[in-house]
Design goal:
Elements lengths: L9 H9 L1 H8 L9 H13 L4 E3 L3 E3 L1 E5 L2 E7 L6 H18 L5 E7 L2 E5 L3 H18 L19 H4 L1
Parallel strand pairs: 4-5
Antiparallel strand pairs: 1-2, 3-4, 5-6
The chain binds iron/sulfur cluster.
Iron/sulfur cluster binds next to helix 2 and helix 6.
Length: 165
């Protein structure tokens, strides 16, 4: 099956590895609680960052790209790193798009949140891992209904709480 990335964004990838139901609701444009304080904070930070973001392909926004000895490094700044796995997979998705779209040979990334830094390698192994994840997501997001809610620690700060509990 040809990979169709229409429903998939960095945020969807982040949500998918956190809570599949959240990813489905987000991808299907179900509006989260706009008064939720985490959503308001996210919007405010996005607004502040807007001028500094680099825009690729009209949809992929990255905070910074540097080049050192022929290697590209993309950097994403986050206000918190409560979900390192989600942050890493989101960045790996951006690396995947850049590597494929711009046919770059070497690109790695890092997520920075205060003093915490996570490195993400754009290795062939990671590209294959992302391709596998995207295929699973494509199949999952095409389902007519989301899976049932399952309580996890992230529910407390999720903007879809009202849809679930
Ligand atoms: S409230 Fe919990 S189960 Fe519902 S979408 Fe959010 S994280 Fe998932």
């Amino acid at each position: 099956m040809e990979l169709d990335l229409d429903l998939i964004t960095g945020t969807t990838v982040h949500y998918y590895v956190t809570c599949k139901r959240e990813a489905w609701l987000y991808a299907h444009k179900i509006a989260a609680d706009q008064e939720d304080e985490n959503i308001l904070m996210g919007k405010a930070l996005a607004q502040i960052k807007e001028d500094n973001l680099l825009d690729f392909f009209g949809c992929l926004k990255i905070d910074k790209v540097t080049k050192h000895k022929g290697h590209y490094l993309i950097i994403e700044y986050k206000k918190s790193l409560k979900n390192p796995k989600g942050a890493k997979m989101q960045l790996l998705f951006y690396i995947y798009l850049l590597k494929k779209g711009l046919k770059l040979r070497s690109i790695n990334g890092k997520v920075v949140s205060g003093k915490k830094v996570l490195y993400v390698e754009g290795s062939e192994e990671n590209m294959q891992k992302m391709e596998k994840l995207l295929k699973q997501m494509q199949h999952f997001l095409a389902a007519p209904k989301p899976p049932k809610p399952k309580k996890i620690p992230f529910c407390k700060k999720c903007g879809y709480r009202n849809y679930c509990y």
